[in-house]
Design goal:
This protein has no helices and 26 strands. By secondary structure, the chain is mainly beta. It has a 22-stranded mixed beta sheet that branches. The chain has a two-stranded antiparallel sheet with strand order 17-20. It has three domains: 95 residues, no CATH class; 156 residues, no CATH class; 95 residues, Single Sheet (Outer membrane efflux proteins (OEP)), CATH 2.20.200.
Length: 480
């Protein structure tokens, strides 16, 4: 089989300021604009997946890179790439150095997967798919458009305020799988499955606000982040291609929100030491109305709730201490705490499998946990060619959810590494590690072998020993 590849022919023209005989990027004021055109000899949908160069014909090319800095500290800058394509990017910014700045940014990105797809359904791009009289052509493609605006304000007392807003849309048609079951006991031979054109109509809004303070020994930042996601379509319903007048339905991505507060602190200590800390707390919510158990009348009962009323709190703490008390000695200590507190509602459901019949009752399991990690390490340089590193790590996990196989696990690890560099191009290393993991009693789930254990929850003793040789015969070649 032979395959023809399209040929792209392009011509460019460059426009530069007439006041300068040559473009000097090092100058505080310059402008560079590239304009041109190209020609594609044949349609090439897949080749232009992320650029938009999908169809035969002429297309416009354009790039811009310009800025100006004045002696009073004010400036402006314009940057743009692929201005004539569907993958265009443009950013405009201006401000006064050390006082304020603001920006406006636009970013566009296509994702062209196929222009030769065919489907049995009518209503492509919508929430309801019905059988037509033949095959309907459609394109599997999405396009993301993002608009951002923001700025910052600085004071002469080491404070800086930042704010940014981003609005993003993603639209088009993707593909998804759907199934309708007609015999639960013989599901393999009685499932009608189809690939469905899935509508994509997403909208995401994000806000970032922060307040920063910086001095020679201390740096502080307080930040807030918000992300709100909305889906224009909440369910996809389709007519069964094998048994007309029967339907299946499935939910699409639900609307949701995320809010987070973060505090970051860095402080310089004596003995060439520095401590940093990050604390954050976040809230995820999801309260999208449930779809019914089944789109088919009589194939399901009454839902116990109208929505999940999902609420998850996330808490994170990170502390790090880095010290160099001696010229040859480096010490590091770190502590990390992560908590997921899932306060989502718990209810008993009678789900309908693949729009056919119920398989019994189930209860949702909101997952909650706490994790504590503590690391200690030291690195001592014996001489210019030899160093020794070692340390200790502790990892403790506590799980809190319905039918948790193991509520608590603890793992302790000791490690060491000896490194020698006898030549500028050669490095040798010997390393070893020993770890032990245990925890609370293991509760095997029903219908599982009671003597088996999930790998990440099982007791484990592990020892690792190794050696490595690195050789760099040339700047662009290495051997390991």
């Amino acid at each position: 089989m032979t395959r023809k590849l399209p040929l792209i022919v392009a011509a460019f023209s460059m426009l530069v300021p007439a006041v300068a005989p040559a473009l000097d990027m090092s100058q505080p004021n310059y402008s560079e604009v590239e304009l041109g055109f190209g020609f594609i000899t044949d349609d090439a949908f897949r080749m232009g997946r992320y650029t938009g160069l999908t169809e035969k014909g002429i297309f416009l090319l354009g790039n811009i890179n310009a800025h100006r800095h004045d002696t009073d500290g004010t400036y402006w800058r314009a940057t743009g790439t692929n201005i004539g394509l569907d993958s265009r990017y443009l950013r405009l910014e201006s401000g006064s150095q050390g006082e304020f700045d603001y920006f406006l940014e636009y970013d566009q990105l296509p994702n062209n997967k196929s222009d030769s797809a065919r489907t049995l359904f009518n209503g492509v791009g919508g929430p309801t798919l019905t059988l037509g009289g033949g095959l309907t052509p459609f394109e599997i493609e999405t396009e993301r458009q993002r608009l951002s605006v923001g700025g910052s304000l600085s004071s002469r007392k080491n404070w800086k305020f930042n704010v940014a807003y981003r609005h993003e849309t993603k639209e088009g048609t993707d593909k998804a799988g759907g199934a309708i079951l007609y015999n639960f006991t013989q599901s393999l031979n009685n499932t009608n499955a189809a690939l469905l054109p899935e509508p994509v109509d997403y909208q995401t809004d994000q806000i970032d606000v922060s307040l920063q303070y910086a001095k020679a020994k201390m740096q502080l930042e307080l930040a807030y982040h918000m992300s709100v996601f909305n889906n224009g379509e909440h369910a996809l319903t389709w007519e069964d291609p094998f048994i007309p007048a029967s339907f299946g339905s499935q939910a699409l991505a639900p609307d949701n929100q995320f809010h987070q507060l973060t505090a970051t602190l860095g402080y310089q200590l004596p003995w060439k030491s520095r401590v940093t800390g990050v604390f954050s707390t976040g809230l995820m919510t999801q309260d999208q109305d449930y779809q019914q158990y089944s789109v088919n009348p009589g194939a399901g009962g009454v839902l116990p709730r109208t929505s999940l009323d999902g609420e998850v709190w996330l808490t994170s703490v990170q502390l790090k201490l880095a010290s160099r008390p001696l010229p040859k000695l480096r010490l590091n200590a770190s502590y990390r705490f992560n908590e997921r507190d899932n306060n989502s509602s718990i209810a008993t459901y009678v789900p309908v499998i693949a729009d056919f019949q119920s398989s019994g009752t189930v209860q949702n399991r909101p997952l909650s946990y706490q994790r504590n990690r503590f690391d200690l390490s030291a690195n001592y340089r014996i001489n210019t060619a030899m160093s020794l590193r070692g340390g200790y790590k502790h990892d403790a996990m506590s799980r809190d959810y319905v039918a948790a196989e193991r509520e608590d696990t603890d793992e302790n690890t000791l490690f060491a590494k000896w490194k020698l560099k006898p030549h500028a191009d050669v490095s040798l290393a010997l390393y070893g590690e020993a770890s032990e993991r245990d925890g609370s009693n293991y509760q095997a789930p029903a219908n599982e072998n009671p003597v088996l254990r999930k790998y990440h929850l099982a007791d484990r003793n592990r020892t690792k020993l190794g050696a490595s040789v690195d050789y760099l015969p040339a700047d662009n070649l290495s051997m390991v």
